[in-house]
Amino acid sequence: MNDVLRQSACELRKLLSSKEISAVELLRVHLEHIEQVNPTVNAIVTECFEQALENAASLDESGDLGKPLAGLPIAHKDLVSTKGILTTQGSPLYKDHIPAHNDYIIDRMQAAGAITIGKTNVPEFGAGSHTFNRVFGPSHNPYDLGRTCGGSSGGAAVSLATRMTALADGSDLGGSLRNPAAFCNVIGFRPTNNVLPPTLEGDHALNLASLGPMARWVADVELLFHVLAPNAPTLAEKHANLNSMDSLRIAFSENFGHLPVVPEIKQAVRDFATLLAANGATVVEATPDLSKSREIFHTVRGLSFRRRYDALSPAEKVELKPTILWNIAKGQSIDDAQMRHVQDMRKQLVAEVDSFFTANDYDLLVGPTTQVLPFPIPVEWPREVDGVPMDTYIDWMESCSLITTTECPALSLPCGFIDGLPVGMQLIARRHDDMFLLRAARLIEAVASSADVLPSFLCGD
Fold this sequence. Notes:
The protein has 461 residues and is an alpha+beta fold. Helices cover 37% and strands 14% of the residues. The strands form three sheets. The protein has an eight-stranded mixed β-sheet, sandwiched between helices. A three-stranded mixed β-sheet has the order 1-3-2. Strands 10-11 form a two-stranded antiparallel ribbon. α7 runs antiparallel to α14 (434-448). It starts with 8 loop residues before the first helix and ends in a 13-residue tail after the last helix.
């Protein structure tokens, strides 16, 4: 593997801006690597390499390499519309769909100089944290090719882990940035709710979905976040001098109070908390009460599926996978009174979590990103976790979906392996403290990250 591919996005930007490497040269290195690696993992499912080479050549000719992402190759999640590039959403209904316009985050990345090279694989319509569909098939976990890479930003996570890209975009409702990041030894960052909504139009009062950046290193996540969310909250003055672990007061929980989590991951959380304390942080075992979160999440998710898919014709609905049909039916069963009740619960929960942070002076809440390790690809979703039955296809990922309902920013950081399978720790900050979370994550990354560990098949093992 070319040593250039081991560089971070920030390091690649330095090489490009100093003209130690041209945009075309960097792109060709990535494309050659993709041609060698992608057939094994099936992460990048649509390619636009010729257009990418033209764009890179134009960038070199213009000499305009001062933009924040100038010359960096990037592949976009196949849920977001890309002008003139196939966007299937992992569904047979859209297998030939070529949008006439970009989603807003695509415009922002391309305006910042990023070179679009293609699209990354997703579950059908992004539903479920296991990346497989009837259009392109499954993506494979690079650390164990027989296991899932998670989802729905699964192809994005795999492209990062295998060094096919240094940056990726994703989206997250119930954990779709965080789950695949944990399963693939990379970082997924879900910002404060509605900092990066799915669109810039419409009423987002009921919205719980978020777009967001993915990368291997926190500095790279921050680089992309500034492009995606130029108006995001800045670092609060009270946090401006955060430069050591000694100033962090951290609450941790191995199960967020009540969730089933496999014993190996629970122990990994405790080991992580011990490591943070050994490096100077004040660490306390504590968690907010998230008992209201499940009803909130299921209701809001059901409503979103009803709004998105209920208008499909009967012939189109036949093409939907059963889990999506279940979610639509869940949405159809919700009346106005229940919706108002859940919105009241949601406001109360957000206030209680805000108070959890402020009343106890906690900077972060730390817990497991996932409740299980990556499971075999033929398993659509885990039917039990640590002996507890999972009734639906989204119950096994509540370590992320419950955090979604708090509206807090959350980041999954790679922090080691269990039997060769990656494990991620979820770092959560109070609402609107996005930049503080990234600053704190950089400190923790310096003592805990396993992001530099390559999948063995890339090492020739």
